[in-house]
Specification:
Layout lengths: L7 H17 L6 H16 L12 H20 L1
Helix pairs in contact: 1-2, 1-3
Length: 79
C-alpha cells in the first residue's frame, strides 16, 4: 500500500513534467515551447492543493510523487 495517495491530476502533471524535461534534452526547434510547458507544469505541481494537506507537508511526499509517477509511466508502457 502506498503511503501517499496522490490525486490523479497531480500524478499526470508530474508524468508530463518528466516527459517534457526529457524532450528538452533532444535538440529540436520547439525548445522555447517546451521550456514554457515545463514552467507551466512546475507551477501546476507546486501550487497543487495536495501540498497543503498534512501528508503533503513532508519532503518525502515530493520524492514519492516522482517515484509513483515514474512507476505509473512504466506500467503504462508495459501494457
Amino acid at each position: 500500500m502506498d503511503r501517499f495517495r496522490f490525486p490523479d491530476d497531480l500524478i499526470r502533471a508530474q508524468q508530463e513534467w518528466h516527459d517534457t524535461y526529457r524532450a528538452l534534452a533532444v535538440p529540436c526547434p520547439r525548445r522555447t515551447e517546451l521550456r514554457r510547458r515545463l514552467l507551466r507544469l512546475s507551477v501546476r505541481i507546486e501550487g497543487h492543493a495536495f501540498w497543503w494537506t498534512p501528508a503533503g507537508r513532508t519532503p518525502a511526499a515530493r520524492v514519492e510523487l516522482r517515484r509513483q509517477a515514474g512507476e505509473a509511466r512504466r506500467t503504462e508502457g508495459a501494457a
